[in-house]
Amino acid sequence: MASSDTRPEAAVVLLSGGLDSTTLLHHVVKRLGRAPVHVLSILYGQRHARELECARYQAHALAVAVHRVVDMAFLGDLIRPGSALIEGGSEVPNLEDIPADRLDQPPTYVPNRNMMLLAVAAAYAEAHGIGDVFYGAQAQDEYGYWDCTAAFIERLNAVLALNRGRAVQVHAPFVAMKKAEILHGGLELGVDYGRTWSCYRGGATACGTCPTCVERRAAFAANGVDDPLEYEDAPRRP
After folding, report:
1. 95 is a domain residue
2. Looking at the predicted structure, is the pLDDT value of residue 5 above 80?
3. What is this structure's pTM?
4. Are 46 and 18 in contact (CB under 8 A)?
C-alpha cells in the first residue's frame, strides 16, 4: 500500500507586525506546521512603519523561508482622503470619540486595503505554486471592518476559484475570535509581544487611546498579564 504524502504544505502569510498578524504567523508555523512559509509585509502609505520593524524581527525569529517588504506606498496618494491611517490623512481619533453610528466603518478603515493586499498575496502565491494565503482578520470588540468578515473571505475565495489553473485560497483562522482569544493562543505559543506594535499613531510610545490601543490593552487585561509595550499614560515599569 502506498503511504500518504505527509510533507508540510507551503503557505503565504500577510504580516503587518501587529498583535493579530504576528500571532497568526506563529500559529501557521508552530500549530499548523506549514513549510516553507513565505511572508509578505506591505507598505501602503500608512501613517507610520513602526509595525514593519516588528514584522522583520518576527519573521527572522521564526526563520521563515522568505520575507518580502512590498512597496505599495503609491496607494497613499490615491486613498488619503478616505482614511485616518494614511500619512497626511485626517487625525486618528480616540475610540471614545467615534460616534456609535460610525463604529461599523470608522475613520481608521482603509478603503479596500485588505482586498488589494490579498490580491497581491494571491498573485504571489500563484506565481510560486503556493495554494494558501493567511491573513489576520479578527472580530473587533467595539468596531468593525467589512473586509475582516467571514462573508468577505467567502466571496473573495469564490472569485479566486474562477482561476482556470490552481486556485489560491484565502484563510483567516481568527475571523470569529476577539483579540483576547487571539492573545491567549499567542501566549501559549510563546509570542514575544514586546516585538509587536498596534498603535495607529506610531509615536515613540503607544498612545493608549486610539481604537487598536484600547482593544489591545483590554485583551491583555482579560488575560491577566501585563502588556510589555509602554503607553503614554502608563509608562512601563522598570
Report:
1. yes
2. no
3. 0.93
4. no
| Total tally of structural domains belonging to the chain | 1
How far is residue 143's CA from residue 140's CA, in Å, rounded to a whole number?
A: 6
CA distances 116 to 42, 45, 139, 176, Å, are 10, 13, 20, 22
Query: Is 2 domain-assigned?
Result: no
Nearest-10 crossing angle of helices 19-26, 179-189: 40
> What's the pLDDT tens digit per position in 43-93?
999 998 889 999 999 999 999 999 999 999 999 999 999 999 999 999 999
Helix-, strand-, coil-residue percentages of the chain, each rounded to 5: 40, 10, 50
Helix 50-61 vs helix 19-26: crossing angle, to nearest 10: 10
Range of the domain at 164: 11-222
CA distance 106 to 98: 7
Domain assignment present for 83:
yes
For 226, half-sphere exposure in the C-beta direction (CA atoms, 13 angstrom radius) is 9
Residue 180, helix vs strand vs coil = helix
State yes or no: pLDDT of 7 exceeds 90.
Answer: no
CATH number for 214:
3.40.50.620
Least reliable range by pLDDT among 45-49, 123-127, 219-223: 45-49
Buried b (16+ CB within 10 A) or exposed e, 193-223: bebbbbbbbbeeebbbbbbbbbbbbbbbeeb
Q: Is residue 229 part of a domain?
A: no
Radius of gyration (C-alpha) of the chain in whole angstroms: 18
